[in-house]
Design brief:
It contains three helices and eleven strands; from the N terminus they run E-H-E-H-E-E-H-E-E-E-E-E-E-E. The protein is mostly beta strands. The termini are far apart. 43% of the residues are buried.
Length: 258
């Protein structure tokens, strides 16, 4: 189903928080060390109704095993009319994908599409293309140059953003998202009918933490603002620009929630 999205598609990014409940039996303080800072954030825009997507979903599962890469699945909703409503999709992810396209100026919006470090798009099933894009963006000014850490204690998660390793980088938005590491879905209609597909590192909740101004800053977020059924991980990222005009990824961190 790789191709341009219909031009009359209307997607809206909602600022509302998702809420839910997740029983977290035991949480210990975890701080990700500087040497573990990832070199790339890889976002896959996928759909349960897209017959071309399962190979890309598998690639994201493989990339998620690499500690130097933060791989995320962001299911979109614009193929729901084809006979199967994506059970994980959110219009905010469709809006994010469109915002990336506007910033690049290429109008390329399709599935499966990967965006690497907020800058380069690649067909989601093209593993070598993704790896090349990681290498390409890794040389960009400021890309993944901001150290980010998370720590967990009780019912709170603390986020710390340090100064950039490149002095010219001095602003960005800080976002935290909760993820479900593995979500198997039985699809009974549409292009993938009869298949069970596992989706990896699916974003289930997204919240803006604050604005980073180039100086070391910290925030505390109640876990109840992030969690919902099936959530077992969290990712924090610092990104240049805004949600309407997303720019390069400046830094990120991942932690398991249990």
């Amino acid at each position: 189903m790789t191709g341009m999205m219909a031009s009359n598609l209307v997607s809206r990014w909602s600022g509302a928080l998702w809420s839910g409940a997740l029983g977290i039996c035991a949480i210990v303080a975890v701080i990700r060390p500087a040497e573990a800072d990832p070199r790339a954030v890889v976002e896959l825009f996928t759909s349960q109704g897209c017959s071309s997507c399962p190979p890309a979903d598998k690639v994201i599962g493989d990339l998620a095993k690499d500690p130097s890469i933060i791989a995320l699945s962001m299911p979109i909703d614009y193929w729901d009319y084809l006979g199967w409503k994506d059970t994980l999709a959110d219009s905010r992810f469709s809006a994010r994908q469109r915002a990336y396209s506007r910033m690049r100026g290429d109008r390329e919006v399709y599935t499966p599409q990967v965006v690497v470090n907020g800058a380069v798009h690649v067909i989601g099933s093209d593993r070598s293309g993704i790896e090349n894009a990681i290498d390409k963006t890794d040389t960009g000014t400021g890309v993944m140059s901001v150290p980010v850490t998370m720590s967990l204690a009780g019912k709170q998660i603390s986020v710390s953003v340090a100064e950039s390793k490149e002095p010219a980088i001095s602003h960005g938005e800080v976002w935290i998202c909760s993820i479900a590491k593995s979500v198997p879905i039985e699809i009974s209609r549409g292009e993938n009918r009869g298949q069970q597909i596992t989706y990896h590192n699916v974003v289930r909740n997204l919240l803006k933490v604050g604005d980073w101004n180039g100086h070391p800053e910290s925030w505390t977020v109640p876990l109840e603002n992030l969690t919902r059924d099936g959530v077992d991980g969290a990712v924090v990222y610092v990104q240049d620009g805004s949600r309407e005009k997303p720019g390069p990824m400046l830094g990120a961190a991942y932690t398991s929630l249990h």
